[in-house]
Amino acid sequence: MNLAQERILKVEAVVLEHHEWGEADRLLTLFTREHGRLRAVAKGVRRIRSRKAGHLEPFTRVSLVLARGRDLWIVTQAETLEANLALHGDLEGIGYASYVVELLERLTYEEGANPDLYRLLVETLRRLDENLDPPALILRYFELHLLDLAGFRPELRECVTCRQLIQPEDQYFSPALGGVLCPPCGKMEPSARPVSMNALRYLRHLQRSPYAEARRAHPTPTVASEMERLLQEYLNYILEARLNSPDFLRQVRQSLSGTNHLPSSIPPSEENLSD
Fold first, then answer.
1. Could you give the domains of the chain?
2. What percent of the chain has pLDDT over 70?
3. pLDDT (tens digit, 9 = 90+) per residue, 91-120?
4. Distances in Å between the alpha carbon of 248 and those of 98, 199, 253, 255?
């Protein structure tokens, strides 16, 4: 569909963020199932009697009717499909959801529909809202699969230099080279940093698995922290800048105990997570 020729759009979307616009309006950033990222104006939504205001909060999945304005789409109808109210209930929920939204915005462009990415976004926000699994698991899964869909899939199965299959031992990882290196190659690469065998196993498990299988992962807090640091370094390298929301999350975590890691368990077996 050529958007330039459309006057009316009916879309399903997630509200990523909004900003005040004029005296009573809001400028929305939407990620739509049908057209990817769009910007739209919700007129009069900041007035007390506005019926659309409650449907257009960040992290909400909505059904919208948009009309073409002079410069931007205008929201004419809005209906909530998933409110994800728990994500607004505390700073931790806001922090996790904000991180998901920021990462999505930084790794995507306004370039048309991406239904797989839209589904990943919706499912990730739903998982965070339901709070049935540790946030660390949900976020690592989101990061790895977003990187895949955005064209930045890290190589975790073979050495990016010599192309030998990775063996079950501690390895190296280079954000600059986009993946893992075997010990001989890693020691020769200035940009490489060590990565433990268990962290690499779990990352590979999350990368290759549907979520129902990925949620079987239970790394120790130490391994979970290592996975988080490695992916943050890789994301910072790709984006050529630091993300804002992780700093906010770290501040929130300082006032909480034990919520930022997956539960401890025995390291995964070779049979389950090594291939």
1. 7-84 (2.40.50.140), 133-273 (1.20.1440.120)
2. 87
3. 889 999 999 999 999 998 776 889 999 999
4. 10, 25, 9, 12
Nearest to 229 by CA among 205, 198, 199, 204: 199
In the chain, where does DSSP find H-type helix?
91-107, 115-130, 135-149, 183-188, 197-208, 211-214, 221-239, 245-254, 270-273
C-alpha separations of 173 from 42, 137, 190 in Å? 45, 20, 11
* Residue 218 near residue 265 (C-beta atoms within 8 A): yes
Q: Which residues contact residue 62 at a Cβ distance below 8 angstroms, ignoring those fewer than 6 apart?
A: 12, 13, 14, 15, 55, 56, 78, 79, 80, 81
Distance CA 139, CA 189 (A): 29
Q: Determine the distance from the C-alpha atom of residue 97 to the mean position of all C-alpha atoms in its chain, rounded to a whole number.
A: 8
